[in-house]
Design a protein that fits this description.
Double Stranded RNA Binding Domain; hpI Integrase, Chain A; 3-stranded antiparallel beta sheet
């Protein structure tokens, strides 16, 4: 689309035979005309073109249309745009990204409507949006039936035009209403700050896509001042267990399910994400000596999402390492305690070939959170005091990774090396674990004392 301000609008023309009235104008060297049955209609259209020139709008040299009219012609509803956005992102998106995108769009779409009259029940509307409209594979399979089909018809007919979100008189109300909806859970209570930030990013992304398609001139979110809840990025140090507590927890796991002690040990001693430990294979154990430190090389990450969201139809999404390019590897030195846990696990298990998973479910598939999660909670009750069980201390298996990283930082391992082993950037590492680094107060206090004493002597 090439825009020009070299525009000339002529007086209305009249056809004697059919008594038509025409609006004629020129954009650069190209002449255009539009004919109407009545003088009033033609005069109204000409006045609109003149208003566009006074506003300083550019006119398209190919169609002759002002920029604002072109956007109206290209306008789609919010629902249509959201579906197109899902289709755009779906092929290369991780399964977890697909679910979070669908969740955000299913939250905001019911708010961006022309009217709430005859609005379906929230549960039914959620089902058609999250489970069908924003799930590309299911949408491609055909239309839904029953109550869900009626809800689909309603949302299609009631969805706002995207251009309405940038109308000067409505922008603030519509955008704020959408953002406020994203800040609430389904039960009406405030959502977690991280959830709000994630959903807002999806909303912003869809409107940026509208700018890319020339439906909007700019992202209207950027024109609205709205404060999102602050995101607490730092790890809660109350969730970080001490090495002695970790030993007690692993002993409790070993007493009930000895084959899982090494799994939880990988999260703590090798700073692994649960999905990385789930996908660990014998070929990843490049060095497990009888004495001393060993070494793992991590290549995959298999978070559990749900079979309906993956391309393979499996509940675990087989992906490359998080925040890393495909085929990227991460070598992690592991201490003797984890080497022993892994060696004991291999002796106890029937893992024989290099490509076999080290930790498997009852049917031989990847280890599921529904299996190791309850075992971890029972281990907490067995190894911790009642007060500690009620606290955030090692409340989730993922907290073991936080504990391992914290241990390394407090041991004095340089941040770049800890970040490399954990698969973080140094910036993220220091931001997330800043509140967990301690043990240096005495050093800094001593230095301050020395300076203060020096000032006193002067």
């Amino acid at each position: 689309m090439t825009l020009s301000h070299d525009v000339q609008i002529w007086k209305l023309a009249t056809r004697k035979r059919n008594r038509g009235h025409g609006v004629r104008w020129r954009v650069e060297k190209n002449e255009f005309s539009k004919w109407f049955a009545t003088y009033a209609l033609a005069d109204s259209y000409r006045s609109r073109l003149l208003r566009c020139t006074r506003k300083g709008e550019g006119f398209d040299t190919d169609s002759g249309m002002p920029e604002s009219i072109l956007r109206e012609q290209r306008a789609v509803t919010w629902f249509e745009l959201a579906c197109r956005y899902v289709d755009l992102k779906w092929p290369r998106a991780a399964a977890k990204t697909r679910t979070s995108t669908a969740d955000a769009l299913a939250t905001v779409t019911p708010v961006l409507v022309t009217s709430t009259r005859h609005m379906p029940e929230p549960e039914v509307l959620r089902e058609v949006l999250y489970g069908w409209a924003f799930h590309k594979t299911r949408r491609d399979q055909g239309e839904p039936e029953g109550d869900v089909a009626e809800a689909l018809t309603w949302i299609r007919e009631s969805s706002l035009k995207v251009t309405a979100l940038d109308e000067k008189d409505r922008r603030s109300e519509l955008i704020r209403g959408a953002l406020n909806a994203l800040a609430l859970r389904m039960d009406g209570k405030p959502a977690a700050a991280t959830t709000v930030a994630r959903k807002r990013a999806v909303f912003h992304g869809v409107l940026t896509y509208a700018v890319e398609l020339d439906i909007l001139p700019a992202n209207p979110i950027d024109k609205v001042s709205w404060k999102a809840p602050k995101v607490a990025e730092e790890v809660d140090r109350r969730a970080v267990a001490s090495p002695r507590q970790i030993q007690a927890l692993l002993a409790a796991v070993k007493a009930e399910r000895p084959e899982l002690a090494a799994f939880f040990g990988c999260l703590y001693y090798a700073f692994m994400r649960p999905g990385e430990a789930v996908s660990l294979r014998l070929e990843n154990c490049i060095s497990l000596p009888e004495a001393g430190w060993g070494r793992l090389v991590l290549t995959d990450n298999s978070p559990r999402v749900g079979a309906q969201w993956t391309d393979t139809g499996k509940s675990h999404d087989e992906r490359h390492l998080k925040h890393r390019a495909e085929k990227t590897k991460r070598e992690v030195p592991i201490p003797p305690v984890l080497v022993r846990l892994l060696r004991d696990h291999l002796k106890r298990s029937d893992v024989e070939t290099e490509d076999e998973l080290l930790f498997r479910g009852a049917r031989g598939g990847p280890l599921s959170e529904s299996v190791y999660g309850p075992i971890w909670q029972r281990a907490r009750k067995a190894a911790l005091s009642p007060a500690q069980v009620r606290s955030p201390l090692a409340a989730r298996p993922y907290d073991l990774r936080h504990g391992g990283v914290t241990l390394a930082l407090n041991a004095g391992v340089p941040a770049p090396e800890v970040a490399r082993r954990a698969g973080h950037s140094v910036e993220v590492l220091l931001r997330v674990y800043a509140g967990c680094i301690d043990g240096h107060d005495r050093i800094w206090n001593t230095r301050i004392d020395e300076i203060l004493k020096g000032d006193g002597e002067d």
